[in-house]
Amino acid sequence: MKLYKQVKEILELVYSGSNLNLVMDQYKGIEDEPRLKYLVYGVIRYNFALEYLIRKLSKHPNDKVQTILFIGIFELWFSNKPNYAVVNDLVEFTKESFENPKIASFVNAILRSFQRDKESLLSELNKDYSTKFNLPNWFIDKLKISDKPNYLSIISGLSYHPAFGIRVNQRKIKLVDYVSKLVNANIEYELINNKLVLSEACAIEKLPGFFDGEVSVQDIGAQYVVDILTRNNVSPKFVLDACSAPGGKACQILENYDCDLLAVDIAHERLAKVKQNLDRLNLSAQLIVGDATNQKWNKDHQMFDLVIADVPCSATGTIKRNPDIKLTRKLSDIDNFVMQQREIINNLWSNVSNDGYLMYITCSVLHDENQDNVTWIKANLANSILIEELQILPSLHNDGLFYALIKKHNG
Q1: 224 and 129 in one domain?
Q2: Does 408 have pLDDT greater than 90?
Q3: How far is CA 332 from CA 143, 206, 372, in A?
Q4: d(CA 67, CA 54)
Q5: pLDDT of res. 139
Q6: Domain assignment present for 91
Q7: Residue 46's domain is classified under what CATH number?
Q8: Domains contained in the chain, number
Q9: How far apart are CA 63 and CA 44, in angstroms?
Q10: Could you tell me the end-to-end alpha-carbon distance of the chain, in angstroms, rounded to an integer?
Q11: DSSP-derived secondary structure letter, 19
Q12: Could you report the per-residue pLDDT of 191-204, keeping only the tens digit for each?
């Protein structure tokens, strides 16, 4: 019963607007942590289907026990735990949680109804994209309007479980040699565009060379910075990474180029994560706390030939990794993100040297934050030239990301 109590506590915090990752951090190392994560993430991933099923099963839903019903229906749907045990345990948990015996009887009736009519109920989920792909209607409708050719690929790509991508530190070991280490460790992998995706998630303690700085965990969709620079013959010497934490892109730059890099983020605790990654990889950079919306870093006329702006965004490309986004993100949030993104871009442009580059990056799949911002850049930033634009759609192997390489050329 203790596990169910913890799952219920976490879910109710998330449904109240708390960040899932921050809440889960408080439960690290507890007994039965894997099962806790399985239930919490499972319920959130299938939230819209679970809501629909409860509405079908009860004409008068009881809000007090909705979270318990979410857990129970999810377990009856996906868990290997015997159905009778799921029902009995959750009914007992309900009795412990509420004095009114009618509430436990209500839970018992709903779970047994689902158990009895499971197949017919589940078949109804495919009638609506929101319940089929477990995404909010506002998000699906927005994609359908702005990106009609790709919207089905995007919403289906977000329904997979997150992949486990890794990035090899080229300063420490060649890709082919690291692959040999994976083979020797009996770790299955796929090689996609010279990027590694493991067949299963792997504890970092079991990842060959992790503590020696040979490899980092990073979704392969987030590893295209160097690909884009290489394709366009850009070899930066002075780099500003303006929204740096947790430092994956800064580290990737330093693994591939001999350059001076300034990593900036808005809070000390965020920069601490950057330093932690730099130290493990035996890389060095200057770290400064700062606000990319209004501060300049071109003191002493030191301009940067590459400015990386991996800006705050809706993070809709990472929904499968951060499923609480589809519960907490609202349509009204998007305009606020776009406004902040344009503030950051406008401010950072003055730090870019003549013939230097701004690389604009989001982990969003929405045109407002991606293609529309590139159009705004071309119209509003003096001497800006779009060199390359790349949309990485979410898929089985990666999250969804967007990249735009912009050159400053004064003619």
Answers
A1: no
A2: yes
A3: 15, 43, 17
A4: 11
A5: 98
A6: yes
A7: 1.10.940.10
A8: 2
A9: 17
A10: 70
A11: -
A12: 999 999 999 999 99
Average pLDDT over every residue of 19-43? 94
The boundaries of the domain holding residue 333 are: 220-408
Q: Which residue has the tokens 């299963």?
A: 200
Q: Which of 339, 303, 311, 157 is nearest to 245 (CA)?
A: 311
pLDDT band, very low/low/confident/very high, at 74 (cuts 50, 70, 90): very high
Stated as kind and residue range, the H or E segment containing 198 is: strand 195-198
User: What is the rounded distance in angstroms from the CA atom of residue 356 to the CA atom of residue 18?
Assistant: 40
Q: Amino acid letter at 65?
A: V
Is there a domain that residue 169 lies in? Answer: no
**Are both 403 and 260 inside the same structural domain?**
yes
Residues with catalytic roles: 363
Q: 0.70 exceeded by the pTM?
A: yes
pLDDT single digits (tens) 231-281: 999 999 999 999 999 999 999 999 999 999 999 999 999 999 999 999 999
Phi, psi (deg, nearest 5) at residue 305: -80, -5
Contacts 24+ apart (CB under 8 A), 98-105: 98/64, 98/65, 103/62, 103/64, 103/65
Q: What number of residues does the chain have?
A: 411
pLDDT in tens, 147-200: 889 999 999 999 999 999 999 999 999 999 999 999 999 999 999 999 999 999
